[in-house]
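Input record, target 12 of the design panel.
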């Protein structure tokens, strides 16, 4: 009974963490989309163009890392 209870608590915690990561990834992807829209509206000579482009690249790396974490947690949940 102890192991089953532990696995249930762990599974619940992992699902909670998974939900948070999915929501965070959704927000980051929304930020990427909005930044890309803004990037398309300003000329490449605009002083903030390169900063915005760099921010998009950084956000994409963050999104990729979140996806990796999501997949790792999903695998862990499946293994319980």
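The sequence produced for target 12 reads:
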């Amino acid at each position: 009974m102890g192991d089953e209870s532990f696995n249930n608590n762990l599974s619940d915690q992992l699902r909670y963490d998974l939900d948070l990561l999915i929501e965070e990834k959704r927000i980051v992807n929304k930020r990427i989309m909005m930044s890309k829209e803004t990037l398309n509206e300003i000329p490449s000579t605009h002083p903030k163009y390169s900063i915005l482009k760099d921010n998009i690249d950084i956000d994409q790396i963050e999104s990729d890392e979140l996806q990796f974490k999501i997949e790792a947690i999903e695998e862990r949940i499946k293994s319980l």
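The mean pLDDT is 94.
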